[in-house]
Known about the structure:
Structural class: mainly alpha
Number of helices: 8
CATH topology of the largest domain: Rna Polymerase Sigma Factor, Chain: A
Distance between the termini: 65 Å
Helix content: over 70%
Shape: globular
Largest sheet: none
Amino acid sequence: xxxxxxxxxxxxxxxxxxxxxxxxxxxxxxxxxxxxxxxxxxxxxxxxxxxxxxxxxxxxxxxxxxxxxxxxxxxxxxxxxxxxxxxxxxxxxxxxxxxxxxxxxxxxxxxxxxxxxxxxxxxxxxxxxxxxxxxxxxxxxxxxxxxxxxxxxxxxxxx
Length: 159
């Protein structure tokens, strides 16, 4: 049974590699860092997949590992390189011409994850709720709030 889970984990990793890369990249916005995160995630999956009790949760579990590895990377990077004196507060108009992924960085981590999984990975709300261990209503509310915040950032200022 445990050998079967390892083989299935490897198959899923290979099949969805690009999806994991896009997910990591949407967090770190750097090609090499995203590749490192996917590689680290794959290592964790292979190392720990024998602990997983139900093979049916394997895909969800792997996505959660990639998300957590991305968030851990950002936290580690933030601790190493940012002091309060160096923080630059962006002007409202600075978002309008930047990369759309920059807009996502203005969202809370869970809200950003929901938007990414819904619109970049085209997941259903039920799947997102399962991976984030939330109920569907919470996912819908967070998605609505995140989209509203993004809309405000994108709207031209009326003076």
